[in-house]
Design goal:
Length: 390
């Protein structure tokens, strides 16, 4: 019953000075909403990057060759020889370039990749119509192509591109397959490209070397071992030259990204937590003012039998109600703001519900911690001194 009465008195006191109560809660509102929005954006970004890196495969290594001196690439045979390393399941060498693709009066600038049939399994690219490239296409330098769904839409609209012709820098290619829609990966589109046999690409792009090879290992556990062997072999090839090549391990990158984003999220939460601390100081100041203004009220209550604990509880509850109400409004703004950011901005936002709960509980603790001093001051007032106060 005493708790109920204390709650009523606290709410009555807050409602009697709404503007002051709102300004008192403002620091808590800003702090809680900032924590929720910043951590939600951080988690959303982390999950997006994690998903993209997982899409690259956990048992894959990507070798990029920059070379040394006049040797700036591997030959096609050297690239295929990487498949003989113990623990390697398959390799997919790629030659890349850009061309102008034209069909009738439509033309687009598009990325072209010269590939082998192993690309389908290693890179997990499949066709939704037609067929994939065959060994015979590479062997006889066939002018055949696979087209990405976005490029197909740009050039052929709603018509099926399979069986039709496309001009790549003026050279005619027959489209034998339409690739499945894959979306974007690490800020590049997987659907805005054309794939042709690697032997054909060497002539089309006037490139005799391979600078990018994706290596699939037999299991995810052998990635590190295979990476070491690859680096040893390439160090021999390039005479231990610095920066002659890089071997990208998606699992290693995933761990680095997770560690970095976790640290960043904690830093952002810490910055937002400062707002909560400042909000707590604001509550303490207002509660001190409230105690000074209501000294005679405290004296009357004590004179008619109120205990020290009753006065302490009254002001503690008022402080907790203030911070809790501020936390509740902050949660609403934080969740609403996160949702709006996710819906109307290019940011990926994942609402951190655990942080929502933690923020609200923390706002209540702010009320307890910063309300303690003024409540204790009120509880220690002697009735005779309080009644003398003007």
């Amino acid at each position: 019953m005493k708790l109920y009465q204390s709650m009523r008195m606290a709410l009555k006191s807050i409602s009697s000075s709404k503007v002051r109560a709102f300004l008192t809660m403002l620091g808590i509102i800003i702090g809680v909403s900032s924590v929720i929005i910043l951590v939600s954006v951080g988690q959303g970004t982390t999950s997006q990057i994690t998903e993209q890196l997982n899409g690259l495969g956990t048992n894959q290594l990507t070798v990029n060759i920059t070379g040394r001196g006049a040797t700036t690439s591997l030959t096609y045979k050297e690239a295929l020889a990487l498949g003989d390393i113990e623990g390697v399941e398959n390799v997919a060498p790629v030659i890349t370039g850009n061309v102008t693709a034209k069909h009738n009066t439509d033309n687009v600038s598009v990325s072209v990749e010269g590939i082998t049939p192993s690309y389908e399994d290693v890179k997990d690219f499949h066709v939704q119509a037609g067929r994939f490239l065959l060994d015979i296409d590479t062997e006889y330098r066939q002018k055949v192509a696979l087209i990405g769904s976005s490029t197909a839409e740009d050039l052929f609209g709603t018509d099926s591109p399979v069986g039709q012709k496309v001009q790549l820098n003026g050279i005619s290619y027959k489209i034998v397959g339409l690739l499945e829609t894959k979306g974007s990966s690490l800020n590049s589109s997987n659907d805005d490209k054309i794939l042709i046999p690697i032997s054909t690409a060497e002539r089309q792009l006037q490139s005799k070397g391979v600078r990018s090879i994706t290596v699939a290992t037999t299991t995810a556990d052998t990635v590190t071992t295979v990476k070491d062997k690859l680096e040893s072999l390439l160090n021999v090839k390039f005479n231990n030259a610095d920066n002659a090549f890089t071997v990208f391990d998606s699992q290693e990158m995933l761990e680095t990204v997770n560690s970095t984003t976790d640290t960043l999220s904690m830093a952002l939460a810490g910055i937002a937590g400062i707002s909560l601390f400042v909000g707590g100081i604001g509550i303490m100041n207002i509660m001190i003012v409230s105690v000074n203004e209501r000294t005679r009220e405290i004296g009357i209550r004590k004179a008619i039998g109120a205990k020290k604990f009753d006065i302490l509880a009254q002001f503690m509850i008022e402080s907790i109600v203030l911070s809790g109400l501020g936390g509740f409004i902050g949660v609403g703004i934080g969740v609403g703001g996160s949702w709006l950011l996710g819906k109307y901005s290019p940011l990926t936002v994942s609402i951190a519900w655990d942080m929502v709960l933690i923020s609200f509980i923390f706002s209540l603790l702010i009320g307890v911690i910063f309300g303690m001093m003024p409540a204790n001051k009120a509880a220690r007032l002697r009735p005779i001194h309080a009644l003398r106060n003007e």
